[in-house]
Amino acid sequence: MGTGRLEAFSDGVIAVAITLLVLGIAVPRPSAHPLAHDLLKQWPQYAAYVVSFMTIGIIWINHHAMLGRLREADHSILILNLLLLMTIGLLPFATALMAEYLRHSGESLAAAVYAGCFLLMATAFSTLNRHLLIDRAHLLRSELPLEERRFILHRAAVGVVPYAVATPLAFVSPYLTLGICAALDLYYALPRATGYRGSVSRP
Amino acid sequence: MGTGRLEAFSDGVIAVAITLLVLGIAVPRPSAHPLAHDLLKQWPQYAAYVVSFMTIGIIWINHHAMLGRLREADHSILILNLLLLMTIGLLPFATALMAEYLRHSGESLAAAVYAGCFLLMATAFSTLNRHLLIDRAHLLRSELPLEERRFILHRAAVGVVPYAVATPLAFVSPYLTLGICAALDLYYALPRATGYRGSVSRP
Amino acid sequence: MGTGRLEAFSDGVIAVAITLLVLGIAVPRPSAHPLAHDLLKQWPQYAAYVVSFMTIGIIWINHHAMLGRLREADHSILILNLLLLMTIGLLPFATALMAEYLRHSGESLAAAVYAGCFLLMATAFSTLNRHLLIDRAHLLRSELPLEERRFILHRAAVGVVPYAVATPLAFVSPYLTLGICAALDLYYALPRATGYRGSVSRP
Amino acid sequence: MGTGRLEAFSDGVIAVAITLLVLGIAVPRPSAHPLAHDLLKQWPQYAAYVVSFMTIGIIWINHHAMLGRLREADHSILILNLLLLMTIGLLPFATALMAEYLRHSGESLAAAVYAGCFLLMATAFSTLNRHLLIDRAHLLRSELPLEERRFILHRAAVGVVPYAVATPLAFVSPYLTLGICAALDLYYALPRATGYRGSVSRP
Predict the structure, then answer these.
(1) Could you give the ipTM of this predicted complex?
(2) Residue D110 phi/psi, 5° resolution?
(3) Distance of CA B66 to the CA centre of its chain
(4) Where are the alpha helices (DSSP H) in C24-74?
(5) B174 and B113 in contact (C-beta within 8 Å)?
(6) Which residue of B has its CA nearest to C61?
């Protein structure tokens, strides 16, 4: 089948997931403290919102580039894409978990689950990318030389590494984990990074 | 009317429903137990998320194939499609119910409601499919031989059977019911299954 | 501007609103009663879900037909469409309110708010329709004779009446109000009703 | 890349955010007061819903006009658009916060956060607009004279001012802040305002 409705459905799921992140920011219940205190105290919720929003947004950009190479999709592509969307759909939970437990007992595990979900997502992305570029190369829009396809794959595989590092590091410091995830967003967002542009034409 | 906006609306509803599933995974409240214990204890929520996500995803793939055969839609198709979407929209509730009650009193009924909602969905799908292929054959994109239409219908009807079996089996064991639903997902996800590909060209 | 993105945005809002209805169906908290009792006791939630889902679905069908007549949109159309979407966006609240209070003190007011929100929606729809067909007739795709435009308008205006009746009747019986809303859905869903088909070609 | 999927994704996020606003309207819990009393008491929730819905709706109209000028998007445009969507995604939280605290201790800060989020959104919008019209003028569909681009930019920059005023004024009166936000919506919604139409052809 063509990729139009596949893109539309993926866009829909990613758009809903990214917008549901706001449900992780709680309206503070009236307390003995002034509201300013209560709002400041929940800063992990804002930090987690920003980091997760940017991460999902960047995966959307990359997803767009990945499907843009495709002429049509078959059953195996649909299923692997579904698995990728399933990991993205988990992020509102992982984000809320991290925000809730940071600065409390259990924060290490919560941060590990958080980065672990990003790791799952990056792995699913990389798997789908490999499937498209190697196993389903005949479904691509234009023939890419094997060398170029390997370059793209290599870069996507490299994207998994920081999360694989950040996940166990949560047991050293959950703040370090959050910092790595934030730094990655910044890296991808910067103009010169190997973001969307780079994934189309090799420098 | 053309099928473009019908597909867009259906995609929207299915994408929202599949993404709302995550609201069924609760952030554990701080308790006397370590977080790891609380997270592990709610494994039915993860299992239900995965099974429901894949089931809705597979129905989306099949829905795509079904509407892809259609040239234009009339009032009766819109209404039957709406009924199908209504059953899909129920699944976040059914999923949360099952996840909440598994391992507690009431688990049999909760699992029966869960599989029962899948049964409703599969029945609505099969009804719409029959309506398109038999009653509205003149609205199809290309003329399909009656024999081929019957083959497609037969397969869709067969898809109802496992849920019709899994629903009452919940009162024997809710785990069995969940297992059947999971096995069905696996069956449809496997490359060789009669999934999307099969519904376009007969083997 | 063209109507493509206007349709896409409207579809998005309507699809999210219709799917959020499920949040009005609560997973019963564990109680002293068996789960079957608790699930049955909340039947107003299921009834309200079905009635609201079908009502929003039918307004979507009619919205589709309305915008389908339009060649391009101007500022006033965008704003009136936004007001219509604002009334549709309220329905998950009105539905949950009605379902929560039916069979309890306050049920009459809750049902009046419920039908009153449908009344608001039907009025906004009718207003936008009149604006398109009378004030912005030069933006229609094809010239419709004034007589035919009046026929369409008249029918849309008639659609407001049942809700204008059902709203105050809530203080006689909230069940009557719910029944009228359900009967309207049934009427529009039936094959021969003046639904989508009728709004394109006059019988 | 083309702007089609960028528009689709933005529409999705904005449509979900605008529809999630309804979650800020609570179904009153049964209390000793009659339901009418409880429903009336939460009027700030309705006011905040209407003001936020119209504000997001108008930003959508303007976003549409802005992207409509664009022929294709590059990495920097995608990232700045993502930042804009991130501020829009915050609004369901800011709206619920304002509605919850109005008429209670903390209302000034809550209203300041509310208008402050609109300020953030207007700033992100203006930044993206400047980037498109000045830095990425070569990606526009048609060459606009510099003078006209400056006119559009100037008007977008002016749109930031009222929120910059309304935010600190919350500490004088949160009602004044809400009133300014509502007046702005009204201004943009009125037929003669410099809304969508004005942003295409200069008067």
Answers:
(1) 0.90
(2) -60, -45
(3) 14
(4) 35-41, 43-68
(5) no
(6) B78
